[in-house]
Design a protein that fits this description.
CATH topology: Rossmann fold
Number of helices: 4
Largest sheet: 5 strands, mixed
Structural class: alpha/beta
Shape: globular
Low-confidence stretches: none
CATH class: Alpha Beta
Distance between the termini: 6 Å
Helix content: 25-40%
Length: about 150
């Protein structure tokens, strides 16, 4: 069976910036019930260059993060390696750059996607806004469907 990593990042102490971490926590519980031992999860405040080594051990990686972009509730995009280090993001390292490092340093390039979950507030307090919670729920259900389809095909 193919190895899958779902990696959420963001700061739960900055309101909706915690969407990626919240999504991964939900997916972990769902995966343990429905597909035990098939999906690994990880989470952090931000991506780091050391994550290139981590993702080199997987066939598929899904990064989950909050988005301030004007998307409906969520977007699911494919990530291609890029050596561009600067990107409009609150995070220090972009997923495309981690994927670039993975390919460059370890000769691996897992199929990679980014789940962008629409957020609205980024203040210094814990807890998601109500609209962000709705987006989280919708994106979580979409992800469980995508993961179920992917695992059923393999």
């Amino acid at each position: 069976m193919k190895k899958i990593l779902v990696y959420g990042y963001g700061n739960p102490g900055r309101q909706d910036d915690g969407l990626g971490v919240s999504c991964v926590k939900m997916l972990k519980e769902w995966a343990e019930k429905n597909f035990p031992g098939t999906i690994d999860v990880d989470m952090n405040y931000q991506l780091n260059i050391e994550d290139a080594e981590k993702i080199s051990h997987y066939d598929k990686v899904i990064f989950a993060d909050a988005s301030c972009e004007n998307i409906h509730q969520f977007a699911y995009t494919t990530i291609k390696p890029s050596d561009a280090q600067l990107e409009f993001s609150m995070h220090a390292v972009a997923p495309a750059y981690v994927l670039y490092l993975c390919r460059s340093l370890f000769g691996k390039q897992p199929v990679s996607h980014l789940l962008h979950i629409r957020g609205y507030e980024w203040g210094m307090q814990e807890g998601l806004t109500e609209r962000a919670k709705e987006n989280l729920e919708v994106s979580f259900h979409a992800m469980t469907g995508l993961l179920t389809d992917y695992l059923s095909d393999n």
